[in-house]
């Protein structure tokens, strides 16, 4: 994600004493970025997504919040808004430069109770901690993956989920990156082979040994039986590019990026998912004005990096076995670590 120049990412993570949740903030460069969203899950939890409609007045945003805590966790956006307001970043609403209203789109995943305490969820303070971490990071800093930020309490079917990120540099020189919170009611795992669906799409597959796969299936069945919580989930993604896009073009990018989720998780976009994809465009690299289809390579890359990011999220996750439930990691089951 941070390969897109000017974009920074920060996490705030709470683990222990009933907590297993957190918040991730993607901070746009100074001056903001064109933003859009596409929601396809049947149970989304979002904030300020209507502002991103191409028909509406807001042109740019300064940050996007991805958070745990279900709808309660959307309070994290308030902490990000306060931080931005203190720096005069937002939509100007008066002659005084300090009179701004930061537009901070946000979306949440369901992780309530996974640490053991149903009331342990992100707040405005969590959001502020995440945006401060983003602002303090060095340009291009490596993004922490796995059980951090909004992915702390994530689960993908019976497996532990988390945060993943990936990027690509296109032939045109344009960069496309993605950050995903993999937390799905569906599965990332082919039940017949133990291979991750996203790796089948990528064409680089090492099939697990039969004895490993059988042992993993038994362990997953045991863990699923232990977990009493309903499979209320959501996969969130944010695709960023340094291309110069209109809001309508950014919305198209958010929409096609959902294909990346569908390649890596089956099934998707269910009534108990809230699958949501945001798009950010920083505008540093103009599209080829002579090619009316120049956007296509960005659309294709957006879906590809989302698939790769989901694979990275699942592979980076660590097992959890606590008062809120048990979710083995893919790495422990199939890589022996």
Automatic annotation (TrEMBL):
Pfam families: Peptidase_S58. Transmembrane segments: none annotated. InterPro entries: ArgJ-like_dom_sf (IPR016117), Peptidase_S58_DmpA (IPR005321). SUPFAM superfamilies: DmpA/ArgJ-like (SSF56266). Belongs to the peptidase S58 family. This is P1 family peptidase. It comes from Streptomyces coacervatus.
